[in-house]
Amino acid sequence: MVGSAGSSYGGRNRGVSCRSTPTYYQFLNRAVVIDRERLTADCVRGVRFLEDLTEDERTLARDKYQREQAVAERLRAALG
After folding, report:
1. Predicted TM-score (pTM) of this structure
2. Is the CB of residue 48 less than 8 Å from the CB of residue 36?
3. Is 24 exposed, middle or buried (0-12, 13-18, 19+ CB in 10 A)?
4. Which residue of 33, 37, 50, 80 has the lowest C-beta tally within 10 Å?
5. Quick one: CA torsion of 11, 4, 24, 31, rounded to 10 degrees?
6. 40-73 pLDDT, tens per residue?
């Protein structure tokens, strides 16, 4: 629902801006032909790093209440 209240652009863009994400701008500009292959490839490249997460990193990614402090400390220590 482009342009409706609570959408991902406009007054409260939730961190996504048309300036920082050119492919996102294509959705808003109806004159631009969307290259679905390029858009899909860009998305895949953008999240490919998730394949390489360690088990500790996966644990922290799922830890929305920050209860895994020991894991966080272990990762901080490993980073030096």
Report:
1. 0.49
2. no
3. middle
4. 80
5. -110
6. 999 999 999 999 999 999 999 999 999 999 999 9
Closest CA to 71 of 51, 54, 52: 54
Longest CA–CA separation in the chain, Å: 51
For residue 53, give both structure tokens.
């997460």
Alpha-carbon distance 46 to 20, whole Å?
14
Q: Could you give the angle at the alpha carbon of 19 between the alpha carbons of 50 and 36, nearest 5°?
A: 60
* 4-15 burial code (b ≥16 CB/10 A, e <16): eeeeebeeeeee
Structure-token pair, residue 65: 């209440």
Reading the block at residue 78, the tokens are 């490993």
Q: With the CA atoms of 80, 71, 63 and 16 taken in that order, what torsion angle do they form, in degrees rounded to the nearest 10? A: 10
